[in-house]
Amino acid sequence: MEIKTEINRASYIRVLKANLWHVFPKILLVLLVISLIFASPKNNEPFIWKNFLIQSLYNLLIALILLLLIVLIKLYKQVRSALKKLNNKSYFSIFNLTPDGININAEKGDIFYRWFEIKRVYAIKNYICILLRNKLLYSIPKTSFDNYTDEINFLRDSKLGISSTNIHLNPPEKSYRWGWLGLIPIIGAVNGIIMVISGISKYKNVKYTLIGIAGILFTIITLMTAEYVANDGKLSGTPKFLRRPFIPTTTMELNDLVKNIEFYKIQNGTYPDSLKQLITKKEFVSIYDPLVDDSKNNIFNYYKIGNKYTLFSSGLDEIPNTADDIYPSLIIDTSKIGLIVSKKL
Q1: Could you read off the pLDDT of 90-104 as tens digits, one per residue?
Q2: Can you tell me the distance from the alpha carbon of 331 to that of 180, in angstroms, rounded to the nearest whole number?
């Protein structure tokens, strides 16, 4: 089967637009699901349809803008180079379907692609597209076929040829440089999702996938840190899995509190009856548990026991005296101070 085609600047732009619109519904569906997940109420917040829909649309708009920026960054050089080459000129090609692959007779000579070099052949609006594993894309206008039957046969024979090859291919070339986008909050998360999907389905590469996950985690940790600072060191109302990375910070605050409590005893001869006694006008002391919701008693758990005391955080479950309670972790010998570790009351 032989098909003669012509490509110029205008037809290249039409093919590009057709391909973008071809993948857009799938991308939109994925982004919509992600937007709905992030718009869902946190913890025990009441579910209000109006707020949920507004937040979902807002998330979707931000995701689309970020995705558009990433697509423009990736395609800019390639599209600009192609348009410059096609400026006021037309190129003719002849596509020949053979049992071993597809031969393309172009102005610069013949190019032959075996079936294992072709990723897929698919139909979009007004075009049949041939996508190679090296990311090159050829398009054949449907008007190049003599009739609809030839178009269907070309698609069928191409798909049979691709599926019949038994050659095991190496994954397509990948570029780790996209991982640097992971250092940009939000943009890095969207890019990370794309890298994870590509790393699993396209490249089948663990390192590429892990870089994508790192980009997503960087955005989460950055936003969590911003929330932590904005709320005076509190993470109330945040899901457990997002608060978990801040457990070491909570431990550090408990360690600092122990120092303040021991210093209080040196000055006053006895331990404070409550942590509020540590707060003075001259010195700021953090006595609030960042892992506990503000609506609850979110002061660190402190109990004075004679000339001793116990101090701990309620942990991620926000309930004191449970298995996930967090205690100070000191490198000094606690028997020389009044702290009782892991004392359940």
Answers
A1: 778 888 888 888 898
A2: 38
